[in-house]
C-alpha cells in the first residue's frame, strides 16, 4: 500500500519510527547515565528538569501550538505567506519572553535552588539551563512549523540525530571529567544538552528558511487578525502547560521531602526519587513514542479538518487515534508489567526498579488517553477546556503526593495512587468535552474492552511462560524475547477473535 505523504497515517508512522529509535537511544543513554552518576545524582538532575519545563512553558509551549495549528489552517487554504508570518511573529514573542525570564533567573538562581528546589547543589545546572532553553525554544517553533505543514520527515530525522548527539556529548563529558562533586556532575550533563540543542535549532532553522523562501503575506489587515489568532491559541495552551509544569515541579520537589517527613533519611529519599523518576517511569514510558508522534500529527490535522468544515473527517480521525492508542498501549504495558522487574534489574542494576509496575502502568495508559484527547481538544479549538482538565488532574496528583507520601508505612507507594487518580480524571474530563465538541460516539468495546481483555490474556500467559522458560534453564534475555514474540501473536489473535478490525487504522487519512 502506497501512503500519501500528507496523510495522518504517514506522518504518524514516520514520527513513530524515529520516535521508537529515539526512545531506544534515550533509554540506553539513561541506563549508561544512571550507572555513571548513581541514583542520588540522578535525583539531583531530576530536580532541575522541572525548572526547564516551567521556563519552556512560560516562553515556548503556547507559541508552538499556535505555529502548528495556524500553519495547518493557512497551508490547507494555500496561504503560504501567512505561514511564514506566523512563524516569524511567534519567534519574536519567544525571544521577548525568554529575555525577561532569563534575567529574573540569573538574579534569583540562589533562592530558587535553595528554597524552591531544596538543594543548593542545583545552582550551576540551573544557570546552564538558560542557553539550553533558548535553543530548545527555537528548535520547537521550527519543528512545529514542519508538523503543521505536513512535512514530518525533517524534524523526525533531526530529532533522531539529536538523541545520538546528546548521548555522545553527555556521556563523553562525564567520562572525560569524572569524578566531580554532584553539582559539577549535573552541570556537565546540562552542557551536553546544550551541544545537542545547538545542532537541532540551527539545522531546523536553516531547513525552514529554505522551505519558506520567497513567500510573502500580501493580504490587507491580516497582521492584526493573525496576532489575535496567535494569542487565542498560545495563551490558554501556555498557561495550561505552565500550571501543569508548576504542579509537576512542586510534585517532584515534594516527593523526597515527604519521604523524609515519613521517616526516611535524606540520601535514601533522594535515591528512591531517582529510581522512580529516573528509571522506573522512563521504562514504562518507552511505548509512548507512538502517542507523542500521534499527538503531534493529530492536532494540525484536526485543525485542517475544522478549517475545511469537514466534521466527519474530524470524528474519523479522533476515533482511529483512540483505537490506535488502545491497541498499541494495552499489550506494551502488559508486557512491561510481566517482564519489567527482570528488565529493570538487567538494565539499571537496581532491584527496586520493578516496584509498583502494575498501578503505574494503569496510570500511564490513562495518561495516554488523556494526552490524545487533549491534543484533539487543541485541534478542535477548545484549548481552554483542555487547560481546565489538565489543571484539575495536576492538582489531584499534587494533593496525593503531599498526603500519601508523608504517611508512615506508605512512602513511595503513594505515588502510583496519585498517578492513577489524576490521569483518570484528566482522561474523563477531556473525553466529555471531545464528545460534545465533535459529536463523537463512545466505542467502549473497540477502545477499552477488546484490547483490555486481549492484553490480560497475553499478560497472564506470558507470565506463566516466562517462569516455565526460566525453570527450564533458558536465559533471561532469551526468555523475555520469546515471551514478547509469543505475546504479540496471541494478542493479535485475541483481537481478531473479538472482531476488532485493525484495517481501520490503515485508512487513517
What do you see in this structure?
By secondary structure, the chain is mostly helical. Helix content is 83%, strand content 0%. The chain is built from 14 helices and no strands. Helix 10 (357-379) packs antiparallel against helix 11, helix 11 (383-404) runs antiparallel to helix 12 (414-438) and helix 13 runs antiparallel to helix 14. The model is unreliable at 1-6 (pLDDT under 50).
Q: Which H/E pattern describes the elements?
A: HHHHHHHHHHHHHH
Mean pLDDT: 82
Number of distinct helices: 14
Largest sheet: none
Fraction of helical residues: over 70%
Proportion of strand residues: under 5%
Our Rg estimate from Cα atoms comes to 23 Å
Oligomer: single chain
Low-confidence stretches: 1-6
Query: How far apart lie the N and C ends?
Result: 13 Å
What class do helices, strands and sheet pairing give? mainly alpha
How is the secondary structure organized here?
Layout lengths: L7 H69 L3 H37 L6 H26 L4 H25 L4 H30 L10 H40 L4 H19 L4 H20 L2 H38 L8 H23 L3 H22 L9 H25 L5 H28 L4 H22 L12
Helix pairs in contact: 1-2, 1-3, 1-4, 1-5, 1-6, 1-7, 1-8, 2-3, 2-6, 3-5, 4-5, 6-7, 6-11, 7-9, 8-9, 8-10, 9-10, 9-13, 9-14, 10-11, 10-12, 11-12, 13-14
